[in-house]
């Protein structure tokens, strides 16, 4: 049974659309639910602060929601964007776009919920610090959204760059691999960044006067956590824009798909692990701000070791791409 | 599309290399991060023991790293050794 390429492209964009919004809905919903749960827990012992807590909860949830909205935008474009192409290659591009947008929203959605929940808790405990806590929550959850913005960028590139002149083999795998690499690698850094942001909110609520060292340590900690999302983005860009010769066998295709999986899955663990490290370090920076330098140094050493498997994945992905 | 048995084997080996390294990197990343996090917590409580705690953290992480290195070795074997 043979179908023409228009059928394949339509089928792939609808499948991609479903995957985008399906995966994309997981993270934001969990993050927002966690925030709402914490807000209710705080209100149980501080019913008089319902206005402040409700405001903080809604602001935090709105940031977490943005990840899902990106996925929804890609999903709608895949269905109604009038996409098409002269070759079946576009089918793989649209499937990759859906996966990039959907998977990358999982981590950022969950992650942004952590600072929002910690902010509700912190404001309940220390109402006077509500301004400082809200500020650090916004910084923390905004940076946590970076991985899903990478996913959005790759999804747009996959949908709107014209790949039709490229050879079908091995480009089908390069396009799918590009979506998987950024999408999967975004999951860890998104969730990890949120853990760091949550501890920063907790610390500022406990010691509002330590706002400055906590903010600095948080930026360093989240910045390191995002590194594997950047590797994933890098591998995706290489897969999209490096020129691969037309091949007559399956070998180069599967090397490129393997590169996408290697970097994508490989980015998850270090992102979450570095986030856990940053979270514990930030708790202590808030407790004893005068030891912030020592704690930041230890945090960076620990995160660097945790990064190593992410670097192995990057090396393996690069080797697979270069040997394709 | 030509399709020989050797091609299929090589393609599967390369896809396997990618999956081996990718999935294998998840555990050590999370585990080492947790070890480092607990070390930071301990240094916060006893800053004067920072040297001992950092050393213990690194030993623990090195052990946790081992499965990541197994994955790397298997990925390199699949890419460059098996035929």
Automatic annotation (TrEMBL), chain A:
Subcellular location: Cell membrane; Membrane
Superkingdom classification of source: Bacteria
CDD domains the UniProt entry points to: ATP-synt_Fo_c (cd18121)
Transmembrane feature ranges: 12-37, 58-80, 92-114, 135-159, 171-196, 217-241, 253-273, 294-322
InterPro entries, per the entry: ATP_synth_csu_bac/chlpt, ATP_synth_F0_csu, ATPase_proteolipid_c-like_dom, F/V-ATP_Csub_sf
SUPFAM superfamilies attached to this UniProt entry: F1F0 ATP synthase subunit C
Membrane topology per record: Multi-pass membrane protein
Membrane listed as a keyword: yes
Protein name: ATP synthase subunit c
Gene this protein is translated from: atpE
Automatic annotation (TrEMBL), chain B:
Lineage top rank: taxon: Bacteria
GO terms for MF: lipid binding; proton-transporting ATP synthase activity, rotational mechanism
Keywords for this protein: ATP synthesis, Cell membrane, CF(0), Hydrogen ion transport, Ion transport, Lipid-binding, Membrane, Transmembrane, Transmembrane helix, Transport
Domain V-ATPase proteolipid subunit C-like residues, every copy: 15-78
InterPro entries per UniProt: ATP_synth_csu_bac/chlpt (IPR005953), ATP_synth_F0_csu (IPR000454), ATP_synth_F0_csu_sf (IPR038662), ATPase_proteolipid_c-like_dom (IPR002379), F/V-ATP_Csub_sf (IPR035921)
Pfam family for this entry, one: ATP-synt_C
Localization annotation: Cell membrane
Entry keyword Secreted: no
Presence of the UniProt keyword Ion transport in the record: yes
Site residues by UniProt (Reversibly protonated during proton transport): 65
Main subcellular localisation: membrane
Membrane topology annotation: Multi-pass membrane protein
One Gene Ontology term, aspect cellular component: proton-transporting two-sector ATPase complex, proton-transporting domain
Transmembrane annotation, as ranges: 59-82
Family: Belongs to the ATPase C chain family.
Purpose of the protein: Key component of the F(0) channel; it plays a direct role in translocation across the membrane. A homomeric c-ring of between 10-14 subunits forms the central stalk rotor element with the F(1) delta and epsilon subunits.
Entry-linked NCBIfam families: ATP_synt_c
Protein name: ATP synthase subunit c
